[in-house]
Amino acid sequence: MTRGLLWKVILILVVLVGFAAAIIPTKDNPEPIRRGLDLKGGTHLVMLVNVGDAVRLETDQASEMLKAQAKKGNLPIPTTKRVNDTTFVAVLPAETPTNGYETIAKDYIPSFDVSRTPEGAMQFKMKTASQTAIERDTMTHTVETIDNRVNALGVTEPYIAPEGNNRIVIQLPGVDDPARVKDIIQTTAQLQFRLVEGEPASDPTAALNSVAPNMKTEVDILPGTREDALGRASGVEYYAVRKTVPVTGTDLKNARVQKGQLGQPNVGFSLTPDGARKFGDLTGANIKRRLAIVLDKKVVSAPVINSQINESGIIEGTFTQQQAADLSLVLRSGSLPASLTPLEERTVGPSLGRDSIRQGVLASLVGFIALILAVLLYYKGAGINAVLALLLNLVILLGMMSIFHATLTLPGIAGIILTLGMAIDSNVLVFERIREELRDGKVVRAAIENGFSRAFGTIIDTHMTTIISALFLFQFGTGPIKGFAVTLLIGLFASVFTAFFVSRVIFDVIYKAQNRPTEISI
Fold first, then answer.
1. Run of H or E including 162
2. Do 138 and 54 meet the contact criterion of CB atoms below 8 Å apart?
3. pLDDT tens digits for 114-165?
4. Which of 25, 204, 312, 463 would be a feasible disulfide site paired with 221, CB 3.0-4.6 Å?
5. Is the dihedral of CA 422, 426, 427, 428 positive or negative?
6. Which residues contact 273 (CB under 8 A, 6 or more apart)?
C-alpha cells in the first residue's frame, strides 16, 4: 500500500471513530441526538402577537415626553389625549405659540408627524415607517423574551420562531408541567405605573363617577383585588387609572422575591438609571396621590405616594410563593411588548412519540435492508463497497447531528431515508459508468479512474439542486420541515464524501494498480 493510500485509509478510520463516538450515550450526555416534539412529546403552541399594544404604548410615552420636555423648557404644559393607537392631540392654552412644541417634537419624538386639527390643537401622528419598525421590533423582542423565559425553566431544545407578521410558533419537547410553562409564556408581564383618579369602588360605574368630569375620558377602569385588614383577598374593586403610562416594565433592571412585613411573599424591583429618573419625577410630583401598579391590565396594588421614590420599590399582592417566583422570573426575563392570544394548542403525549420512533425506525430498517440486498444482488462485490460507504454515511450524518445539537424529528427520519437513497444513487452512477468503460474494452484500473471522474459532474449537479431546495426548506419552513432539511443537507454532503472519497479508496485498496487487475466484481 502506497503512503498516499495509507493516509487516506487512516483519515477514513479517524472520521469513522470520531463520528461514532459522538453518537454513543455517556453519563454526561445520555441523549446525544435530541428528539423533537413529535418524537419526545410535549406542547405545540401558535400565538398571535397583538402588535397594536406596543404601538399604543409608544404613542402614550411620546405624549408623556412632550409634557415632560415642555415642563423643562418652561413652556405651558399641554393637555394631551390619545385619539387612536398611532395619534394623540395636544391642547395648548389660548394664543400659545407652537414653535417650542414643534422643536420638542423634532428633537425628542421624531417618529411623529405634527399637524393642526380644525379646532386648533396640535396633532401628532406616528409615521408609517416608524409604526412598521415598532411592529417588527415587537415580534423580535417577543421571541427573545419567550426564549428567555423558557430557558429559565430548563426546557431542553425548545423551538420558538416567528411565523408571518404577527404569529409565533412555540414547541416545547418533554415539558414536565405544560400548564405552568404555558401560563408563564402567555403572561404578558406588562408592568405599568399609572396614577389613580378618584377612589376605588366595588363596581366600574362607581369608580368612574368618582373621577372629575374633565378627566372621565382620560382614564381606564381596571379591576384589582380588595384586601381585608390582614392583607387577605376579600373581593374585587375597580380603579380609574390614567391612560397615559409614564413608567413601564421596560424600565426595570431586576426583580426578586422577598418577604413582606407579615412574612407574605412580595416582589421587589429595581429600576434602570433612566427608569429611576422617570419614576422619581412621577412620584415626586404626585405625593399623597395613589399610584396603581398595573400588571397585565390588572391593578396589583395602589399605594399612596408618601415621598419621592427613585431606584427601587415593592409589588405587593396576594401572591403564593410559586406565583411570586413566577412573576419575578417573567419580570427579570423582560415584559412582553405586546399581549399574546392563543390560536392553536396541541399536546403530544410521549406514547405517541414512542410509536413514531418505533414505526420510523422500522421503516428505516426495512428500507435499509431492502436497499442493501438489491445492491448486493445487482452489483456483487462492488455492492459491498457501496454498503460500507452507506454505513459510514449514516454514521457521519448522526454524528454531525449530535455535534451540532440538531433536533431529530419524524420528518428528519424521512430525510435520513431519502439521504441514504441518494447516497446509493451516487454509487449507482459511478458503477454504471465503470460498466460502460469495461464494455468499451478499458482495463480495470482505467475503467475505475474514468468511472469516478466522468460521473463526478453529474452527481454534483444533482446534489446541488437538492441542496438548494433543502436550504429554502430550512430558511422558510417551521420546526418539523427544518428537521427534514437539516438531515437532508448533512446527508447530501456526507454522501459526496463517501461516494467519491471512501468508495474510491476501497476500490484502490482491493484493485491495486501495481497488481494489474484483470477482473472486477461489479
1. strand 159-163
2. yes
3. 998 888 889 999 999 999 999 988 888 888 888 877 776 666 667 788 888 8
4. 204
5. positive
6. none
Alpha carbon distance 120, 63 (integer Å): 17
Asked if 225 contacts 233 with a C-beta cutoff of 8 angstroms, the reply is yes
- Partner residues linked to 45 by β-bridges: 170, 345
With both helix axes pointing from N to C terminus, report the angle between 3-22 and 381-403 in degrees, rounded to the nearest 10.
Answer: 50
List domains and CATH numbers for the chain. 3-41+349-515 (1.20.1640.10), 52-130 (3.30.70), 187-345 (3.30.1360.200)
Phi, psi of 440 (to 5 degrees): -80, 5
Q: Are 334 and 187 in contact (CB under 8 A)?
A: no
Q: Where are the alpha helices (DSSP H) in 291-409?
A: 321-332, 350-379, 381-403
| Whether 409 contacts 41, CB under 8 Å | no
pLDDT in tens, 69-116: 888 888 888 988 888 999 999 998 888 888 899 999 998 899 999 998
Separation of alpha carbons 251 and 510, rounded Å? 72
Question: By the 8 A CB rule, do 258 and 314 touch?
Answer: yes
> What does the block give as the cell for 318?
396576594
Cβ–Cβ under 8 Å, residues 235 and 226: yes
Q: How far apart are CA 167 and CA 341, in angstroms?
A: 9
Work out the burial of residue 494: count CB atoms within 10 Å of its CB; fewer than 13 is exposed, 13-18 middle, 19 or more buried: buried
C-alpha cell at 205: 360605574
